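Before surveying the methods themselves, let us examine one representative protein, written as a sequence plus integers encoding its fold.
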Amino acid sequence: MKAYLLTRLILAVNAGYLAIYVSAPAFLEAAPVKKRKAEITSVREISKDKSLVTNMKKDIKVVRFPAVDSKNKPVKAKYHFYIQGGLHGNEILTSKFVLWLVKRLRKHQGPLSRLDKKLVAIDLVPVANPDGIADNTRTNKKKVNLNRNFSHLWGLSKEYPGTHSFSEPETRSTRYLFENNKYTASVDVHGYINWIVAPTKPTLIQVENNKDLANRYNSWLTALKKQTKKFDPSYELKTAGGLGDGGAFEDWAFWNQGSLAFCLEMATAFRYQHNFNKATKKSVRKDVFIKYEKFIYDMFRHAIKITDDSKLIANN
């Protein structure tokens, strides 16, 4: 679909299978004008490349919230953000979370909606591995761990990373989006462990070859450390290389594409935490999606500052 129209996303979970259905365009035309315009499309549609579908010929859907002017017409964004879930097909809660963010953005709810829509565009990929979701498997249809199939440090993995970097249509689809959109910052949502994963620390050669990017890395790592500490005391900050995970999304997105990237690991496979309140002697239910959303928002705010500071230094 070319026009920036709302397309309803219906989440269906049946015996571990999650699917996204797109309703008829007629529904869109009746949508209240107060809601933020979104476009739901696919990498195949955007690229005009029929090969950018999964091995089972499924489209990889992209929900796009463009920057808009005061009349709600799309304009070129100063900052462009990317949020992805479901790269591991058995981590279904990550796709639910990204779909929830879509709904929140559409309704102008939550902290991400406070980002200036005249300056900010956001692309969301709720299901980066549709075949894995359908099979409820960590890998894609060819048994490749897609989060080991990106090019940076490719091959340094205990899990099958594919025959070569970007051997899989799913990672090539991500590459297409990044090569055609300069993403200021990006997050890949995974689960389930109490970690935030930063890109791998630069080597001396990387520092020498690209001092600006190495400086940006230091600023980004400092921001991640600060925000992780505030976010949840049970969380640890790791690096992809430190975990022995070559070919990870956040490494490639940062070192090859210049996007301030990180991996957000959800702590458990459950959306709600139940805590017992001793004073009231009642169980209190807490929606963890809210704190994950806030963390992403805080990191995007840091990314804007780091980007602006880098431009200021470059112009002096």
